Amino acid sequence: MASPTGRLGTDLEPGAVAAWRAHSQRLWGERFATPLDAFRHLGAVQSQEYQPSKLTPAMRTRPDADGQAFASVETVDDLIDKGAVVRTHVLRTTWHTVPVEDLRMMLAAGGERVRNLMGTNNRAWGLDDATLGRGAEVLAAATAGGRHLTREEASEALAAAGVADPTSTRLIHLLMHAELESAIVSGTPKGGKQTYANFDERVLAGSIAQDDAIRALAERFFASRGPATLKDFTRWATLKVSDAKAAVDGLGLQELRVGERVLYYTQEPPAERDSAPVVDFVQGFDEMICAYTDSKEFVLHHSVPRTRFPGRARFTSVILLDGQVIGSWKATPKKESVLIETWRVRGFTAAEIAALRRGADRLRAWYGKPEMELVLDHED
């Protein structure tokens, strides 16, 4: 891979950009010692699919047990149980798991924008500012003193305080608003269920100005996900373009041009690797996919026209070939084995099939099963 020659000088193929990103994200190359280090590097891991989301930090971490390809799910669970990372609504109107020490910074950077985006839906469900504010106050009080409430218990507390119909979608919006208002945050799970804890009791004290928060978030994004565009960052963090641009300009990031796009980075490009294919099985909302809504042409595999990719993947989770999306997968754990179904947008060479089998075997080990059944399917 050619090295950049300065600002706006280098043209790279889409596959080279994807490989660079895989190294920046630490999916490839040297892995982290612990999942917490991986969380701190990425800053935020999209996690609306709770169990699969744990694969994102695990894949970027060295094994913690014999026979594992990367860190076990138990080591990620332990961080969540202890509150070292919290799962909450931040950056966008969806779940993210973030290091607890970074949450105030992320909310300062974009919390107001996310709240504004929720406005239309809040009004559609009859939730005005007074009701939302009252809900946040009730939830902060109900979780004080170390009480961690399930969603059902949170609903009961809201109803007991006179908040009308705190159920279904209305409850979801009340909880999300309270999270964005720094009233509650995720607590220790109960019986596999998400709980809510008092924000100030769970999250380290401190404050940060919005400009400083956006700058810190930009630095994290481009260090862990570069090369990426300004719009990639703006959409990932739900920011105004002007605010995001001011932060990027202030950081003095390195730049390169790929076609008509300007991409920013801090991590130098990796050394040339051999031509052997690499297949990774990632969760459907892995940061290799979700961080790049603007530059999707580098996300989908360059060997297949974009029109060949279905609007809706057969399975939720994603197969990467050399860092780019080539198909999808689904795992069904059984007593002694795991069934791994795969589908690809094109056939594979013998070397690519061998790489796919190696990737599936790493996944088998993560599920803790001695055997696997691998189903191969692809578009004709």
Automatic annotation (TrEMBL):
Matches recorded under InterPro entries: AlkZ-like (IPR009351)
UniProtKB keywords: DNA-binding
UniProt xrefs under Pfam families: AlkZ-like (PF06224)
GO molecular function: DNA binding
Domain of life: Bacteria
Protein's UniProt name: Winged helix DNA-binding domain-containing protein
Organism: Glycomyces lechevalierae
